[in-house]
Amino acid sequence: MAAFPVFAQKTDQQGQGRAIVTVLPSAKNGNAGQISAQNLKVKVNGKESTVTSFDQLQESNSPVELVLLLDAGARASLGTQFNDIKTFVKEMPPNTKMAIAYMQQGRAAFSSQLSSNAADVLKGLHLSTGIPGENASPYFCLSDLAKSWPSHDRTARREVVMVTDGVDNYERRFDPEDPYVQTAIKDSVRAGLVVYSIYWQNTGRINSTRYESNAGQNLLLMVTQATGGNSYWQGLGNPVSMQPFFQDLRRRLSNQYEVSFTAPSNGKPEVKSLKVDLHVPSAKVAAPQQVLVTGAVSARGE
User: Fold this and answer.
1) Does 6 reside within a domain?
2) pTM
3) Nearest CA to 83 among 42, 36, 125?
4) How far is CA 50 from CA 14, 53, 257, 264, in A?
């Protein structure tokens, strides 16, 4: 019998990734100018990737689905912000569907369904119970929302605005490796969510301390940076008005782009680190720090 050498088959596989990034002018009231794929440099897990497309998401060709996720344990004074919330909902462009959900016992409990009709959306706006610890953990609720998003339209941008103090009731100190926060991030990235947060204190003596407030804000910042969103707060207290936050949020939503790229893959969908650099002096980019790279196809067509 003749012996034949066995050679390991090389698998040079490339997966596909896509991310929603926000491009804003570097100077206040400035203009970002023309941006193209040639201005971008994308790295996945520290390795350079090839940008395959870079498209601005205009209202006419890019539907938006946005969920306002309000903490059921928020202080009743949140009602003083209802006019700002109502104005935000009413002023959203017609390509936007919105819904309101409350953080309750680890779930995202919807009080209104996705709709482009502001009146239908606002029927779900009400004062929260204000019971200390009612959310269980805001990160449980975000994970639940990511896993049970109320639509199957993957052409739509999925945006979330969390209104909460961000305190994890199961780990009150700031821990970058908090497993519930890390799970919420991974679930959000897999579902394609861009998460924003507005800091508002919850009821309860412990949550109102400087230590807890600082921990909650930093945990929220981790989530928003990982998904490409933004965190809003004014010091360690409740803001006088949310109107400036909503104004900035609308500006960001109108300056979003979708970037698609190839990246090395092991053949299975996997969450990886992402870094996007924009080489345009007149603009700056806010990009997610993590991205889902889908199953690979062999680069040799095998």
Assistant:
1) no
2) 0.91
3) 125
4) 10, 9, 16, 10
Whether 252 contacts 23, CB under 8 Å:
no
Cα(257)–Cα(244) distance, integer angstroms: 23
Structure token digits, residue 155: 């052409």
- Whether 170 and 194 share a structural domain: yes
Give the pair of three-digit tokens for residue 149: 């998003």
* Residues spanned by the domain of 107: 63-253
φ/ψ of residue 199, rounded to 5: -75, 125
Give the span between the Cα atoms of 161 and 70, in whole angstroms.
Answer: 8
Question: Which 8-state DSSP code applies to residue 255?
Answer: T
Q: Does any domain span residue 5?
A: no
Q: Which of 299, 295, 259 is nearest to 15 (CA)?
A: 295
| 263 & 292 share domain | yes
Core vs surface per residue 259-291: b (16+ CB within 10 A) or e: bbbbbbbeeeebbbebbbebebeebebbbbbbb
Tokens matching residue 294: 């889908």
**Which residues have C-beta within 8 Å of that of residue 207, sequence separation ≥ 6?**
132, 165, 167, 201, 213, 216
Q: What amino acid occupies position 211? A: Y
Same domain, yes or no: 178 and 214: yes
66/96 Cα distance (integer angstroms)? 7
Q: Pick the closest to residue 103 from 152, 6, 194, 169 (CA basis).
A: 169
Residue 300 has pLDDT above 80, yes or no: no
pLDDT in tens, 110-162: 999 999 999 999 999 999 887 888 999 999 999 999 999 999 998 999 999 99
What letter does residue 74 receive in the DSSP assignment? Answer: B
H or E stretch at 224: helix 210-227
